[in-house]
Amino acid sequence: QVETLKAKLLEQAQEISRLRSELGGTDAEKHRDLLAAENERLRQEMKACEGELRELQRQQQQAPCRDCPHLQENAGLQEQLSQLQREVEEARAKLVELDLEVQQKTNRLAEVELRLKDSLAERAEEEERLSRRLRDSQETIASLKSQPQQIKYIIKTVEVESAKAKQALCETQSRNQYLLEQVGMQKQVLKEMEQQLQSSQKTEAQLRAQIMMYEAELERAHGQMLEEMQAMEEEKNRAIEEAFSRAQVEMKAVHENLAGVRTNLLTLQPALRTLTHDYNSLKRQVRDFPLLLQETLRSARAEISQAIEEVHSTNRELLRKYRRELQLRKKCHNELVRLKGNIRVFGRVRPITKEDGEGPEAANAVTFDADDDAVLHLLHKGKQVSFELDKVFPPQASQEEVGATVHTVGVKWGGSHLLLTLLCLPQVFQEVQALVTSCIDGYNVCIFAYGQTGAGKTYTMEGTAANPGINQRALQLLFSEVRGKAADWDYTITVSAAEIYNEALRDLLGKEPQEKLEIKLCPDGSGQLYVPGLTEFRVQSVEDINKVFEFGHVKRVTECTNLNEHSSRSHALLIVTVRGLDRSTGLRTTGKLNLVDLAGSERVGRSGAEGSRLREAQHINKSLSALGDVIYALRSRQGHVPFRNSKLTYLLQDSLSGDSKTLMMVQVSPAEKNTSETLCSLKFAERVRSVELGPVSRKAELGSWTSQEHLEVLKILLGDSPGSTAPPGRAHTSPSPGQLSSRSASIRRKLHTSG
Ligand code: ADP
Ligand code: MG
Question: What are the Kinesin motor domain coordinates in residue numbering (predicted)?
């Protein structure tokens, strides 16, 4: 039994050592080392992959395809890679855990082994003791056998002894029993240990399975990584191939360019040769240039000085001619004006207005001659009275006909922009234009509007904003003519506005409008008159003058009478002074344009005025008859002209005498109720116009013919007309329309008077 037990124990120990060697840390350690090595290898591979990846990224960054799908794919792959790395990291952590567990297990196993060793030692000791006792017992038995005579005794003793032996046996048996129990216990322990071993084997199997799983996982990760690396490798190859093909294409283009450049170079070579040739010849020329230049300069200088000399002489000649022409033109103009007469009298009939009322009072009393635009017939108290003026404007005559239209248009000519002033002149306005031209030439000019209040004086002179009158149109003309001469002449234009009210002269533009101004003789002995303290404004356009006008209007004295609500009781004067300087000759001229809106000419009794109004009317009548007298005296070329009889004529003395020109616009109303005033106005007009003229004045009479009239005169003289026997005598105050209504009759009449 002991032997079998021993054998069993030995067997157990062997098994244990086998298990130990099997289970021992070495295997797990080996496995761990293997895994670590594998890990290290994988890490190396990963590093290499990362390096490759970086290289690929660098290539991609260098490559122009920034938005290509590879980038996105790459990003995906990188993400997968990082995922895998994370997984590997997790697996590593698990591995470390497992290592720890294995370590714990190994420790426990070592403990169990130690305990087993102790119990084995104990058992060997026990066995030793038992075998010693067994030997002692056997020796005792053998000694007993060798002493047979003493058997009885011995038996006895044996008996005695046997009792003792029996006890010893019993003891031995109990001892054996105890040992058996011990063996059973040991068996139990062994069984437990076996169970423990089994469980640890199970754990080991589990661990192995886990390790296998991890290995498989690692394998899979590795495979995936390999695949990805493969894909990346392919990607890299593809990118390289693409880059290569692109580079090839670029290379091809570069080659082509090179070929082009080569051919260019080939074609340029001859050009270069010719350029070199040119350059050489130019170099030669440059070398010779200073000499040539000096030569040319010398000859050019000579030529230029000659040309300058020629131009100078031509200029002198031209200047001389120009001055002569200027003199001639002035002479001609003066002669023309003189022939026409310095004083022109026009009549204008205003239309019947609402203010004239209705019924027979407002009936039209004025008719015109269809053939003669200078004749007008007035029906007064049942009698027709005819008047002849220089020109008569019917009610339908527009402001343009009386004035003129000036259009300024911009035109493109030869690349430059020109301003053309187009003057639309009705035949009549030629008079106004002639006056403006004279003024610019340095003559004094007057334009008067005469007539009863409400006859249209202000309308004719000033007009309305939409339909301006003579003032505006004459000034427009003045400025446009001045602009036209701006190349040779410098003009300074100033305006003054004055009013004569009750024989007192007042400055309409001054700071003290109530202040009475005096007219004085120039102290320089030139005989010129001037008004000290009269404000003058320098103007550059019609707009400037209009502003001055508006300013003056505010101050003008206007009062209501029962004839016209806004009847003007004063003479209004706008004095435009034009000072010119001919830049080429240094000639200076000064001309004055006086635009006068006279006060109403109606008689006192008619207007029903009293007191101060009566005084006003008396002053007005006095000054108007003085004006009539002056004009009459001038036109009949009397030695004495009564300028000093009124402030008006005195102020305008230098603009009425000498070479001055005057236009009188006589305004009349056509209404039946105004016929006596109309008659007075027309008589005044005829008085200043139809003067019995001497031989010189006769020329003026002839001069008032129009070119059309001259033609007709020629026809008459040549006996072309049936009315060649003209009736003698002038019947201009009451010519019978039946007898003398035709144009030729009028001309014949003129012919007769002019001889
Ligand atoms: P005056 O200045 O002689 O007192 P206005 O010029 O004030 O007279 O004219 C009196 C009225 O007659 C104004 O309403 C004016 O518009 C009108 N009138 C005068 N002449 C004409 C005309 N030719 N055409 C139209 N209306 C006119
Ligand atoms: Mg008026």
Answer: 342-691
